[in-house]
Amino acid sequence: MSSIPDLTKEIVHHFGDMIRSELKLARTEAVDSAKAMGGSMAQLGAGIAFAMAAITLGGFAIVEALPPEVPRWAAFALAAVAAGIAGLVFFQIARSSMAPKSLTFPKTREQVGRDIQNIKEHIPS
Q: What is the distance between the alpha carbons of residues 73 and 22, in angstroms, rounded to a whole number?
């Protein structure tokens, strides 16, 4: 039969191993999430560039479509205000949809839960 100090050393050793394993899993999940987000960010950047070009050309089309009685400066100002409002709306929608859920570590959370349950089962009452 093991002594109390031996059992304590063994518990501390296993707890340290468990913590190191959880940190390694969390780091792996963080790197995987960052890689996935990196590819998405490149695609987002390309989409933004094309959207800006489309908005600019659309603004020119709006200016040209207005009657000749409207001064050109006013037509350009009107197109700029319309594009600015649309930009703000899309910015707010994007900001609200960028939830931290994509940065969670579900595998780590599950493993920590299992570890806590395992500890509870092995601690004498």
A: 62
Reported as a single tens digit per residue, the pLDDT across 32-68 is 777 777 777 778 888 888 988 888 888 888 888 989 8
C-alpha angle with apex 110: 106 to 116, nearest 5 degrees? Answer: 145
Burial class (CB in 10 A: 0-12, 13-18, 19+), 93: exposed
| Exposure on the CB side of residue 18, measured as CA atoms within 13 A | 15
Residue 113, CB-side half-sphere exposure with 13 Å CA sphere? 6
Where helices occur in the chain by DSSP H, the ranges are 4-65, 72-97, 106-122
